């Protein structure tokens, strides 16, 4: 994977720990699905058991309050970066059809964001997330 690109996740800091982990897992799956070149090779242990591949580059996870999260999302949208979103409504749904409908129900600027993942050029991602702190 090129050092010129970056994968980052931003989660809202007032979520419960399980919610932050859930959001992170779901939104990074969007990057894997749409940017297959971010995926490395399969893993294999010393006994020959094969394991699924993972990202071939680090994934940085940030925490932000709702205002900073929304501002970072707006910057990522302005820079036309690849973005996966998770909204508050998705905590109450249990299937992909309802998830997509929940996101579709709100315009971009009105999304109740719990978090998002972003992939793009390192500089563009850094500019979109400028001022955010890494998740503790």
Automatic annotation (TrEMBL):
A Pfam family per the record: DUF2000
Gene3D superfamilies: Bit1
Superkingdom per UniProt: Bacteria
InterPro entries in UniProt: DUF2000, Pep_tRNA_hydro_II_dom_sf
Protein name: DUF2000 domain-containing protein
Organism: Amycolatopsis acididurans
């Amino acid at each position: 994977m090129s050092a010129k690109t970056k994968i980052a996740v931003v989660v809202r800091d007032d979520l419960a720990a399980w919610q932050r982990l859930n959001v992170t897992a779901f939104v990074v799956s969007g990057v894997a699905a749409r940017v297959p070149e971010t995926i490395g090779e399969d893993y294999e242990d010393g006994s020959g058991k094969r394991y699924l591949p993972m990202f071939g580059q680090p994934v940085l996870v940030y925490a932000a309050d709702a205002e900073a999260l929304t501002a970072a999302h707006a910057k990522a949208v302005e820079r036309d970066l690849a973005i996966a979103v998770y909204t508050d409504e998705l905590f109450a749904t249990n299937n992909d059809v309802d998830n997509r409908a929940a996101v579709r129900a709100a315009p971009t600027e009105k999304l109740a964001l719990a978090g998002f993942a972003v992939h793009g050029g390192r500089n563009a991602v850094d500019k979109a997330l400028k001022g955010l702190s890494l998740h503790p």
